[in-house]
Each structure stands twice: as C-alpha cells, then as structure tokens.
C-alpha cells in the first residue's frame, strides 16, 4: 500500500513504524524510540496528529565575553501563517562555561505532515538596554523533532 499523500489525504492513513529509528541500548541500558518508530493509527493524517519540533540556538562565549548579564535576550519564532512566539532567556549562566557549546532552548512548534515545505523565521535580539555585547559565537540554529 502506498503511503504518499494524495491531495490532502494519505492513501495509507496509518503510520507504519521504521525500526531503524530505535536507538540503543545506551551505556545504562536505555533505548530512545522516535515517534517515527511507532505504528500509529491515523498517524499520516494531519487532522489527528502533529509532530512537535524544538528550536535551539547553538552558542558559546569567549572568556572575555561582555554585556550578556544585564538583560535577558529575546528569541522569536515565527511560523508561516503568522503564528509567533517569543521567549526571554538570561544567557549569563551559559557564559559561566566559556568556550563550550551550549544548546539554548528557545521554543517549540508543531508540524503537520513532514514539514518539508514549512517556513520558519527566527530572531535573537535585545534592544531594551544600552549595554554593548561582545564575545558570543553563534554556530547556528537547530530544529529537532520531539522523540
């Protein structure tokens, strides 16, 4: 049976799990089972299921970084269609471990289907103080599925 979408409806509405999406065992004997490893009734039908995605900025700070403890930094996530969220994060705690990459969690959003044609805009800013900032290194933005 083909599970490709036909118009807005899948010819196979059920999600058939992919066993390769099971990871483990880890050193402690635990396993990670992705949602894509599960058989889910109506799992291919966006009327019933959405997958959550988590958004992270990958950042590190030089030892001489400055200005990051005076005000929280705003991170904005905007989805096509106008849905928008904003969080404030105090980055001072990340600065305490310089030259180490940190995953700075900034949001979560839901995706219908595989999300391959979805547009997501992200922003990072702080405009409420006059404090200069320096010494941050941004590796990029990472979007990860909720496993």
Automatic annotation (TrEMBL):
Location of the region described as Disordered in the Swiss-Prot/TrEMBL record = 1-24
Q: What would be one Pfam family of this protein? A: PP2
Superkingdom of the organism of origin = Eukaryota
Tell me which InterPro entries the record gives: PP2-like (IPR025886), PP2-like/Lectin (IPR052147)
UniProt GO molecular function: carbohydrate binding
The positions making up the signal sequence are none
- What's the name of the protein? Phloem protein 2-like
Organism of derivation: Salvia splendens
């Amino acid at each position: 049976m083909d599970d490709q979408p036909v118009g807005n409806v899948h010819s196979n509405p059920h999600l058939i799990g992919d066993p390769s999406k099971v990871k483990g065992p880890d050193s402690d004997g635990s396993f990670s089972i992705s949602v894509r490893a599960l058989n889910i009734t109506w799992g291919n039908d966006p009327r019933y299921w959405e997958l959550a995605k988590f958004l992270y900025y990958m950042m590190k700070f030089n030892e001489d970084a400055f200005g990051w403890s005076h005000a929280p930094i705003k991170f904005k996530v905007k989805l096509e269609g106008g849905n928008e969220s904003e969080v404030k994060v105090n980055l001072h705690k990340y600065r305490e471990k310089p030259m180490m990459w940190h995953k700075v969690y900034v949001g979560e959003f839901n995706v219908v289907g595989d999300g391959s044609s979805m547009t997501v805009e992200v922003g990072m800013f702080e405009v409420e103080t006059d404090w200069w900032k320096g010494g941050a290194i941004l590796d990029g933005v990472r979007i990860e599925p909720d496993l």
